[in-house]
From TrEMBL:
Residues 63-258 form the Fumarylacetoacetase-like C-terminal domain. GO terms for molecular function: acetylpyruvate hydrolase activity; isomerase activity; metal ion binding. It comes from the Bacteria. This is Fumarylacetoacetate hydrolase family protein. Keywords: Hydrolase, Metal-binding. Residues 1-58 form the Rv2993c-like N-terminal domain. Gene3D superfamilies: FAH (2.30.30.370), Fumarylacetoacetase-like, C-terminal domain (3.90.850.10). InterPro entries: Fumarylacetoacetase-like_C (IPR011234), Fumarylacetoacetase_C_sf (IPR036663), Rv2993c-like_N (IPR018833). One of its GO terms (biological process) is carboxylic acid metabolic process.
Amino acid sequence: MRIARFAHPGGMSFGVVEGEAEAGAAGLTVAQIEGHPFGQLRFTEQRWALADVRLLSPILPSKVVCVGRNYRDHAAEHAAEVPAEPLLFLKPSTSVIGPQDAIRLPPQSVQVEHEAEVAVVIGPPGARRVDRAGAERAIFGWTCANDVTARDLQRMDGQWTRAKGFDSFCPLGPWIVTGEDLADREVRCEVDEEVRQLGRTSEMVFDPATLVSYVSHVMTLLPGDVVLTGTPAGVGPLAAGETVTVRVAGMGELANPVLELE
């Protein structure tokens, strides 16, 4: 199932995206549901063509927990060791944007880079000190993510909060995919028409259930929280005027224009 959050003439709603993904936006519709998708789904009578609504970030997390160097080839391209345990950092909720929202390049940085990732969305009742089985039950679904990073500030600061935390530095979308296995999915990033990153989820050092369990022993994961699972090799610079697109097989695509901060 594909669950989207979207703006329409009557306001903002969650809905289920229907139709074959290969048909493109013109062949998809979104069926509105009552309230939040974390309970039993109850459909309203409202339905829109996907092309007639604006997709928003599919969830508004209280926090975004990220994992560094979770692909060996990405660690290698930065001449860094693969951590013995998951390397955690946070992005603020204010960094989250949705499909087609602009990534804004801050004046403090001259080297902003893309990082294509799979995001885990936590469902109810959340996760606190759970084992692997509990972590698997806590995973509501998956979506595409871009862990935008000011690489020069990351190197300068020696810790990652500023480099990862600017407004617009966490695109999510286009929707949450539920009820599917993440075992071996292609993760791709394109800037305009150039393929920059191409990896597979099977190449992760720590798989999503391991990550969720590990994080839950550090901090409580609330329903709607997001865990980013790391990026494959090929991260690279973004420039104003470009469009960066993250694609995860079976999860749609997340495209964002890149603009200077006004």
